[in-house]
Amino acid sequence: MSLGFVATFMLAAPNQVNSETVSAATVPFSAVERAEVQSVTVAEGFVNEVSHDKLAIKELVIEPVIPAETEAVVAPAAGVPDPGTAQAIAQSMLTARGLGADQYSCLVSLWNRESGWNVYALNSSSGAYGIPQSLPGSKMATAGADWATNPATQIAWGLSYIEGRYATPCGAWEHSENNGWY
């Protein structure tokens, strides 16, 4: 998310301060008062004075503009997995954690992208391994000694990783969509 800024100016005539604060984006040129010295205060007391155009600005306030909420990234619906597959194991583990079909769809999309649900998937450039693409793969040993070959062990580790870092599979999917990795 990027923040924009609105500069707010207090304008002053040569011998008086106008108490009206106006947004820089809405100040008509005719509203700018002329004075002998242009003075702009930027951050905690720094004052820059320029006398060539005789414009007086007595105070500059920068206010953040917070963008409107954006809709969450939604993964395509995954459907029902074939019994006994890694996806069926993952769906069962998600259900046991109280997570529904939306989270399952996000997980399917995420790990389709990462490994194609291949328990032996190896990223040759990074060394990431398995269904969740653990880096290094041996981190998954915390979920079981059979981490290199067992999809259930890899999925259990991957779900714990996602929970700790992104809270939910949809949180991880959204991060992956926005950043190209999770």
Notes on the protein architecture:
- The chain has helices spanning 86-96, 101-114, 151-166, 169-179, and strands at residues 4-13, 16-23, 38-42, 46-50, 57-65.
- It has two domains: 4-65, no CATH class; 86-179, no CATH class.
- 29% of the residues lie in helices and 20% in strands.
- The protein has four helices and five strands, in the order E-E-E-E-E-H-H-H-H.
- It has a three-stranded antiparallel β-sheet, with no helix packed on it.
- It is of the alpha+beta class.
Number of domains: 2
Give the averaged pLDDT, no decimals: 78
Strand order of the largest sheet: 2-1-5
**Structure classification:** alpha+beta
DSSP helical segment count: 4
Strand content: 15-25%
Total strand count, please?
A: 5
Biggest sheet descriptor:
3 strands, antiparallel
Structure, briefly:
By secondary structure, the protein is α+β, with helices and mostly antiparallel strands.
Name some characteristics of this structure.
182 residues, alpha+beta, 2 domains, 3-stranded antiparallel β-sheet, two-stranded antiparallel sheet, 5 strands
Task: Give the topology.
Layout: E1 4-13, E2 16-23, E3 38-42, E4 46-50, E5 57-65, H1 86-96, H2 101-114, H3 151-166, H4 169-179
Antiparallel strand pairs: 1-2, 1-5, 3-4
Helix pairs in contact: 1-2, 1-3, 2-4, 3-4
